[in-house]
Amino acid sequence: MLIGFLLSAYAIVANDAIQTLGTFIAANRQRPWQSLWLFASGILTIVLLYGWLKSGGDPAYGRLNKFPFDPSTAAELYGPLCVIPPLTLLILTRFGLPVSTTFLILTFFAPKNLASMVTKSLLGYGLALAVGLITFKLVKNYLARQESKTVVDPWWVPLQWITTAFLWSQWLIQDLANLFIYFPRDGEPGQQTLSLSWLLIGLFAMVFMQLIIMREGGGKVQEIVDQKSGTSDVREAALINLVYGLVILFFKEYSNMPMSTTWVFLGLLAGREIAYQLGQKGEELTSPWSMIGSDLLKATLGLVVSVIIALGMQGQLTSFFG
């Protein structure tokens, strides 16, 4: 159980968290990695402790209500097999695939919720693409004028840190379920709580995993962020953070069913790339479309692999597809 959590914590921080903090890292390459780590870890600590205290013991903000811990099946679910999903995630992440931890990990524990999670995630991709396209189309000319300046207006830097804190907190509220599903919880389904000792173990593990990833400069998945035009610019990063956070906030209020923030992230970047290329002519259109298609193909491949592995370990592949 604890090994599964630790593997999952590292894989999630290296994969999903970089999709949230990636633009922040890219725009702050000149700063010591320790300052970025302390900032992100501080937000993590506040969000985790606030959620646990406010709910009376639920650090996942209700996202595990449909994934209750059942002591009668714990020996089977939390045996050696439970480390395979995070191990798979770790391997795929090292290859740079933007894999959804939600699909891979939560499907293993509750396959019946897969359809709802996929539906919500696809809606998230579509909404993020549309919002990203409209937003960056509207501000494209303004940003172009800003970027022509030799000196960045000083208010952009604190704005980026504020929007990063907002996005990071919303992402944590959405995705903490992928981690704390590994820990035993007490109480009736829908009202289960986590002990303080398990909470602190989880917190210290995540802070340490973040330290490792920040020292590496973001790891493999950071390369996907760095490929996008302008993501190292503090102004671009601030707007991406704000829009991404608002989309996640919308779906957080929409329902407690977990969703893949990976797909939301890719949808937003796709909409942004399209917005920047609208009005361009000729060969200039080839690059963004091929990049968007490549990202979507990788995410789809990750989804298929995740579902096959999760359902295969549960022995439900035949019943699910047939």
What does this protein structure show overall?
The chain is mainly α. The protein has one domain. Helix content is 72%, strand content 0%. It contains 15 helices and no strands. It has helices spanning 2-14, 16-27, 33-55, 71-77, 84-94, 101-109, 114-147, 156-175, 177-180, 196-215, 222-227, 234-254, 261-277, 286-314, 317-321. Helix 1 (2-14) runs parallel beside helix 5, helix 1 (2-14) packs parallel to helix 10 (196-215) and helix 5 packs antiparallel against helix 14 (286-314). It is globular, with a radius of gyration of 19 Å. The two termini are 31 Å apart.
Categorize the overall geometry: globular
Low-confidence residue ranges: none
Main sheet summary: none
Mean pLDDT: 80
H and E string:
HHHHHHHHHHHHHHH
Query: Number of helical runs?
Result: 15
Share of helix among residues? over 70%
- Give the tally of β-strands: 0
Question: What's the number of structural domains?
Answer: 1
Rg over CA atoms, rounded to whole Å, is 19 Å
- Assess the beta-strand content as a share of residues: under 5%
Through-space gap between termini? 31 Å
Helix-strand category: mainly alpha
Summarize the structure.
With 322 residues, the chain is mostly helical.
List keywords for this structure.
322 residues, mainly alpha, 15 helices, 72% helix, 0% strand
